[in-house]
Every structure is written in C-alpha cells, then in structure tokens.
Specification:
single chain, 9 helices, 11 strands, 23% strand
C-alpha cells in the first residue's frame, strides 16, 4: 500500500510504502474514519511513536520503519527515493494501558480509568478507552473496585507479572515454531559472562523472549519480570573489572565496535507479510 505524505524534493507529493494486513486494505475506503495514524507514547522509552488505529472494529497497530541506504521504490509509474518501509503489525493495547497504570500507581490509590489514561503530550491516548472488551483486558493487570456503580482501578504487580509470563511463553512458542536459534544471540546481546550462561536451550529461549517483551514495557516492570522468571543477572549490573592503563583494542574489537546494530530483529520480524505486485524495490 502506497500512501501520500509531505512534499518531495521537486514539489511533488511524497509517497510512503506501508505493508499492512490484507483485511485492512479497503478499510479506509469503506469508512471515512477507517484508518487513523496517531502519535502515542512508546511504553518502553516514554517517547512518542507512530501507531495506526483501525476505527471499526477498534484495533491497534504499531508502525515499524525500516531504512536501507541507497534504495528506492517503484510505485506504479513513479520512483520514490528514500527506500523507507513502514510495517503495520497488530499490537496488544494493554501494553500502552500498562504504561499509564504503572505511572498512576505512584499515587497509591484506586482511580477511574479516564483519570489514569491522560497525557498532555499525546492527547490521542483517549482512543485507548474506546477499545472493545476494555474491562476484560484490565483484569489481567489491575485490581478493581466499584463504588456507586463507577469502577476504579489500581496497578497490580502480581497480576501483571503473571500476564507477562504468559506473553513470554507465547513468544517462546513462536520462536520455536519458526526454528529461531537464540542461544548465541542471548550470549552476545545480554553480555553474560561465560560462567553465567546456561547450556540449557530452554533458558536461552526464556532470556530472548523476555528481551523481546521488554521492548513494550517500562524498564522497572522489565526488571521485575526478570526476577519473576528467575533469569540470571546480566554483567551490565555487575561491577566492571579494573581497567589496564595501557590496554589497546585489538583489530577484531575495533571492527566489532563499528558494526551497525540498527538491523537487529524486533518481535514483529517473526511474522511474514505479503507485498503488492505493483510495488518493487531496487
């Protein structure tokens, strides 16, 4: 799907390439408010990120942007420079709600949801309150009280960790189904010391799945989840060994330091997408 954005270098309308599920292809044509791009908080970083709402039915998608150097797109009869690829993948909205619930938990009291999901920086967060079966979703991560027929919610650490553990198990199952070997990745990305890394393949899957889920939750909750799963502590939290005054980097170390790590896979990379025939890439 090719969409129009701002003006290109020569004054023409700039187009973007977006891959999205097949069933959303005609959603914007059937309804005037079918698909809506919104800027919401990234629950891991607390910064703005681009999302896509399917307004009927209410459904949330995250937008991942992939960039490659020296690439362009053939879009119908035109060539679009830049080579950006936007990928829309379904996302559990409870990850975003969890961010606000955890933030509101600092007050230590039950609150109505419309007072919890409030954000001056990202006012479109109120769209989260229109999601179907919202109350069922909240049962996974909150304690609830009802006073005068009005419901109040409070973040529950115990329920949240149980829910996230299920997410980790689901991610592990997807990794195994797709025959993804994660052992070497866990050791290199987590920087475990040699005596900490288990040869148990199951533990490697747990560590890797935890890392993927952590991209969608605040760091404090990620740390709580690691303890809940009884994961080994990474060397990043351990004291650094004393440095040698005249130590020099080897050629291999220098080469490793220059490696571009921006292409590391995220959780959505394990799901395939179909491309349109009239869009090509060079």
């Amino acid at each position: 799907m090719a969409g129009r954005g701002g003006r290109g270098e020569r004054g023409g309308a700039r187009q973007h390439v977006l891959l999205l599920p097949e069933y959303l292809k005609d959603a914007s044509k059937k309804m005037k408010s079918g698909l809506m791009f919104v800027k919401l908080v990234n629950p891991r970083l607390g910064e703005g990120a681009l999302y896509l709402f399917n307004m009927c039915p209410q459904q949330l998608f995250e937008i991942k942007v992939f960039k490659e150097k020296h690439h362009s797109w053939f879009i119908n009869q035109s060539v679009q420079s830049g080579g950006l690829l936007h990928l829309a993948t379904p996302m559990d909205p409870l990850f975003l709600l969890l961010y606000y619930l955890k933030k509101a938990d600092k007050e230590g009291k039950f609150q109505p949801l419309d007072q919890v999901v409030v954000d001056d920086m990202f006012p479109d967060c109120i769209l989260l309150l229109k999601l179907p079966e919202l109350e069922k979703l909240l049962q996974h991560v909150t304690d609830e009280k009802e006073i005068d027929k009005k419901k109040y919610y409070k973040y529950s650490k115990e329920k949240t960790l149980k829910w996230l553990e299920k997410k980790v198990n689901q991610t592990m199952a997807a990794l195994k189904t797709n025959h993804i070997n994660v052992g070497a990745r866990v050791q290199s990305s987590a920087f475990f010391s040699s005596h900490q890394v288990s040869t148990d393949k199951e533990e490697d899957y747990i560590c890797y799945a935890h890392g993927l889920i952590s991209d969608y939750i605040p760091k404090e909750i990620s740390d709580d989840l690691a303890k809940h799963l009884k994961l080994p502590e990474s060397s990043a939290s351990m004291p650094n060994p004393p440095s040698k005054k005249n130590s020099k980097m080897t050629a291999a170390q220098k080469a490793l330091a220059k490696v571009d790590k921006s292409g590391m896979k995220s959780i959505d990379s394990f799901f395939g997408v179909k491309t349109k025939k009239d869009v090509g890439k060079i």
